[in-house]
Amino acid sequence: MNVKKEPGSVLPHAVSAEDLALINRLSRAELAAEQVYTFALRLCDNEVDRDWERFDESGLEALRHLFVGKSGIFDHNWSAGGQTARLYKTEICQEEGATAAGDPCRFLKGYAYMLRSEKNAALIEEIEGGIKKEVSVGCSVSGRRCSICGQESCSHQGGQVYDGRLCYFTLLDPVDAYEWSFVAVPAQRRAGVMKSYVQSRDSGLRRMLSAHPACLRQLDALEKEAKLGRAYLDGLRRELVRLAGMSDEELDLQVFSKTAGKMDEDELLELAKVYRRRMEEKYPPSPQLRPLAALQQQDEDRAFLV
Ligand SMILES: [Zn+2]
Predict the structure, then answer these.
(1) Ligand 1 center to 64 CA (angstroms)
(2) What is the pLDDT of residue 43?
(3) Ligand 1 center to residue 169 CA distance, Å?
(4) What's the number of CA atoms in the CB half-sphere (13 Å) around residue 89?
(5) How high is the pLDDT of residue 132?
(6) What stretches in the chain show pLDDT beneath 70?
(7) 178 Cα to the center of ligand 1, angstroms
(8) How far apart are alpha carbons 10 and 275 in whole angstroms?
(9) What is the DSSP string of the chain?
(10) pTM > 0.85
(11) How far is the CA of 176 from the centre of ligand 1 (A)?
(12) pLDDT of residue 306
């Protein structure tokens, strides 16, 4: 079971000697402090999220180990250039307050480094400049447990209250942390709040796919096809409204076109057939045959075509 959480944001962090030692454990070449840029980020927390799921303490602890050494990618503007950062240290931090599950609030903080290379300069500037980045993490868990009955599979609904108890699901035994990524968001949005919510299905999908250029291309292609499909349906609707208007003068076209807007392809085609038949009854098609002489003339003309 793969889960994807978007709780984080970037926190400033300066490189220390201890950081450098940890970084050099991961990097191929020995790096000096001035060669690396480091920053901290909030990877995920133990709050019950919008899917009514949460990590418990042991889940966060497992993730703490799984994330070390993992590379993160930036939204596709950046990842196209291959910019990555790597987590060299993680820790669990406690904050004030309690979660919806009644636990003290905790979050997993990650420390990442990237090279201060020419290629990364603009990106570092962007991070430093406070263009807020949301962090999303993807990890794989073995299952989830219901807060009401303790079962992994049941019919309780997350978010519902049963006998005064909130139903949520605890994500069990993270087995892999496979990615974390950054997506730029407008600075004013959700200022001070670190957990992010997907505003629309589409942007959420794009964000989830931001690490996978091939999937994004596929999404682009699908969107193009969907657009063609919508244009086709719009055409059918317009044609139906036109036919209906011509064959039934009493019809309130405004109301009718609203109704047509809710019809699917089959309904549109079927109803158009009905109105077309009615039209033909009302205005029988006049014969559109050309005089025979003209046709013969045309045939004779064709004889000279090479
Ligand atoms: Zn249950």
Answers:
(1) 28
(2) 84
(3) 9
(4) 18
(5) 54
(6) 1-13, 75-83, 130-134, 183-204, 207, 285-306
(7) 28
(8) 61
(9) -EEEEEEEEEEE----HHHHHHHHHH-SS---GGGEEEEEEEEEESS--TTSEEE-HHHHHHHHHHHTT-EEE--HHHHTTT-EEEEEEEEEEEEEEE-TTSSEEEEEEEEEEEE--TTTHHHHHHHHTT--EEEEEEEEEEEEEETTT--SS-SPPTT-EETTEE--EEEEEEEEEEEEEEEE--TTTTTT--S---SSHHHHHHHHHTT-HHHHHHHHHHHHHHHHHHHHHHHHHHHHHHHHHHH-TTS-HHHHHHHHTT--HHHHHHHHHHHHHHHHHHSPPPP-PPPHHHHHHHHHHHTT--
(10) no
(11) 25
(12) 47
Q: Give residue 71's identity as a one-letter amino acid code.
A: S
58-102 confidence digits (pLDDT tens) = 999 999 999 999 888 776 555 556 667 899 999 999 989 999 999
pLDDT at 5: 58
pLDDT at residue 196, rounded to an integer: 25
Q: Which two tokens stand for residue 52?
A: 């009514």
Distance CA 206, CA 212 (A): 10
CA atoms within 13 A on the CB side of 207: 24
Ligand 1 centroid to residue 150 C-alpha, Å: 6
Residue bearing tokens 């994807």: 4
Read off the tokens for 95.
């904050």
Centroid of ligand 1 to alpha carbon of 174 (angstroms): 20
Q: Where are the domains of the chain?
A: 2-198, 219-282
